[in-house]
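We now fix the convention by which a protein and its fold are recorded. These numbers are not coordinates but entries in a learned vocabulary of local backbone shapes. A record is reproduced here so that you can trace the correspondence yourselves:
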Amino acid sequence: MIDRKLFPFIQTALSDYPAVVLLGARQVGKTTLARCIGDARGAIYLDIERPSDRQKLTDSEAYLSLHSQRLVILDEVQHMPELFPVLRSLIDEGRRAGQTTGRFLLLGSATGELLRQSGESLAGRVAYLELPPLQALELAQDQQNTLWLRGGFPNSLLASADDKSVDWRHNLINTYLERELPSYGARLPAQTLRRLWTMLAHLQGGLLDVSQLAKGLMIDAKTVHRYLDMLADLMLMRKLPPWHSNLGKRLVKSPKVYVRDSGVLHALLGLDSHDALLSHPVVGNSWEGFVIETLLNAAPRNAHCGFYRSSNGAEIDLLMDTPGLGLMAIEVKKGSNAKPRRGFYSACEDLKPDHKFLVHGGADGEPYPVGDGVMAVGLRHLAFRLAQNLAIQP
């Protein structure tokens, strides 16, 4: 089993709260991680999608009361929303009896739905954590290119060959199109949903233009918005918001969109090898998305992130304001000898960040200056320093 950096955070949250919600897309390893934690605590594990386990919860209050002294793990809990008022009652009853922490570990693969359900009933009683696909810091340095190509879903990354990895990702995509999205209320044909997802892949790192997507799919913009929200709730797509400032500049107001997992992105685009990826026009934007996803997952939870683009061409790929580290301006380039664009320097003059970085695709080494206060740095090095909330030094 690959050690997940979220493991100690879940343990700490269980020691501090009666309930912990672990969010993550399907097949990222939530169940494996939860079972590892549960085995050490003698936990009860129930999969809401398994009929036999769901049957045990016919009288959920009675069943869960029988196991009040044990951690109960409820997988895919968003499919049984009627549980949440019961959990609130049991948590409050347990508090009066001195059971204040470590009662329930709830797993879910739909962010918006689960946050709404749990927020209404468990406010003040629950901690939220997100488990992303495998990240660069959880793997060896020499696995970074494989991670970029195949993505971080464990079954894809650890497949014995590239073709087996591609087959697994196509099966995952089909599962979402034919089962997951319809279960969350999708009414469009699977083929139309696939076209939308593929159009987003071609748009990787670009500005979201809902009207153009609607025109290409021959559906209305409101419907496109709804399905984009679904993909975001299922943690398959990220909308990176524009950075707001009071500089009096004319700024881009549309978010940038990314397919969150690079392996899913490449499967949607038919890229099955490093050679195919490196020769494809999306290679730069694919690397940008991979870097941004890695850094966002490494950053402290209270970091404020976005991108900056003005009408005069000033642009920063990623801005990250982190307490203790200040405002960081990050330019992403695949080439190890690349230099920042003129628009990056212009944007930095506008915002005056505390730190300026160029994240390159070369072998990780010590950061080095590239001029005008910009430090070139490898992805793992910057991600590690962010995860440790440490300043970046040359």
